[in-house]
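#onboarding

Welcome to the new folks! Below is a worked example of what a typical request in this channel looks like: someone posts a single protein sequence, and someone else replies with the predicted structure as tokens. Don't worry about understanding the tokens yet, we'll cover that in week two.

Example request:
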Amino acid sequence: MFDFFKEIFDGFVFNFIEGDRWKLLVDGLWVTLKITGLSALLGIPIGFLVGLVRAIEERDSGKRKHSFPVKCLFKVLDIYVTVIRGTPVMVQLLIINFVVFVGFDFKMLAAVIAFGLNSGAYTSEIFRSGILSVDFGQTEAGRSLGLTSAQTLWKIVMPQAIKNALPALGNELITLLKETSIVGYIALIDLTKSYSIIQSRTFSAFWPLIAIAFIYLVLVVGMSKLLNIFERRLRKSDKR
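Example response:
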């Protein structure tokens, strides 16, 4: 038994302590978090605006005639959501890096744009469904109280819509974090890519893989706990 634990300890020291190879995990983790954060900062506003416009279109369907430019906008947004959701994020990443930015070394920017646009398409559906989940009678009630359409939207509909969309939005952020593990295909050294570097130096796959799996698990569990705390606070505010 002692020899078993000694072998595990020696493997850990050899893979991470010797040669300061643990720094590769730290640097890779920083790249992963940076891409995730910047992509979320890009994707959430895009998703909110696209989801808002598409929800308004759906609510007004058959009730109001829109001008040709507005109809074109609706169509462009539909195409954007359909194309992004209908193609793998890896393909989108490769297209932006090797086609859009061909000849330029903008790997980090390409990753942020690719994941931001991808996340924006999915969050747009989250926000759209959140807005549509608010009963239309509340909009009519707001208008009957003398509020304008914009005031009704922002003061009555949107607070409830965002609250309804929060659990799905949290899941999308977790998915975004895990999806960034493919950036190694454009030569960015993230948390997952650091595994292959360590493995190439130690010829050991077990410890590097276990390490990055554990780190991802801690990140996901941590994000889930924070989201649960936030949701509980929102529920408490509903009871006041």
